[in-house]
Amino acid sequence: MIEARIQSVQCISPAGLHSMSYKEWGAPDNPNVLVCAHGVTRVADDFDSLAQAMASDYRVICPDVVGRGRSGWLANPEFYRVPQYVSDMVTLLARVLANGERQTVDWFGTSMGGLIGLGLASLPHSPVSKLILNDIGPTLAPEALQRIGDYIGQDLRFDTFEQGAAFVRAVSASFGPHTEPEWHKLAQDVLRQEKDGYWRRHYDMGLALPFRSATPESAARDEAMLWAAYDAVRCPTLLVRGAESDLLTHDTAQAMLQRGPKAQLVEIAGVGHAPTFIHDEQIAIVRQFLLNK
């Protein structure tokens, strides 16, 4: 089995410096780089199966976005927003691509990770050469955002790992069918036992602040900015939608086929928000788009 290397890079926000951890798979001198970015409360470990499957063709980089997993936390949680995450990824890519022959990467982003990739791909002279958006688009269903915001802000503690795992499984039911070992790993990746003996989700509760401070006016501005960013993307783009997703609606997906990069669309039956890309048939979608294999 291919093993990952745990690395970190120092990034900056208006509130100061912070560290961002990332897992690196595959040959470190491989000029072909794939970045995999996770959802809002998830971690780099989500991509262990996908990274192992792609590591023979790519140097795979899976960051823990700041505030999650092995990464540091922001001194001011008001900056837990996509522009800060894009800035951090520019710093990461400066490290990853330093002295390399190629200065481009392919990008796979789930939910929030897709918005980060979208922001990066929309910039002039972007390093993103191919973009996969996993169940995310410029228009986000308000009810789904409310659900996610409520979930993020619950500072829960569990007496046992099993209690925490049951909670993670319940709130992640939209991921679709998984085996018992797969559910165990999905919980294990985001639960940590603290010094007081309780198990908690391993992220900064400050992540909820931007959700709580949102207004209808700010949401409308954000949506307009995301559509403008999508329209500016020029690289080949694949849109993956869970057929039962409550975050990326059918109408938004159809609009994305007509605008901007005019994405290709693949829908995955029996899954909501968001496909995990643990299973072979989902990984095959990535291989086909990126490698034509």
Rg for CA atoms:
18 Å
Q: Main β-sheet, in a few words?
A: 8 strands, mixed
Q: Categorize the overall geometry.
A: globular
Question: If you average the pLDDT, what whole number results?
Answer: 95
Distance between the termini: 21 Å
Descriptive keywords:
single chain; 293 residues; alpha/beta; Rossmann fold; 8-stranded mixed β-sheet; two-stranded antiparallel ribbon; 10 strands; 36% helix; globular
Give the topology.
Blueprint: E1 5-13, E2 16-25, E3 33-37, H1 48-54, E4 59-63, H2 82-96, E5 105-110, H3 112-121, E6 128-134, H4 142-152, H5 161-171, H6 180-188, E7 191-193, E8 199-201, H7 209-212, H8 216-232, E9 237-242, H9 250-258, E10 264-268, H10 280-291
Parallel strand pairs: 3-4, 3-5, 5-6, 6-9, 9-10
Antiparallel strand pairs: 1-2, 2-4, 7-8
Helix pairs in contact: 2-3, 3-8, 5-6
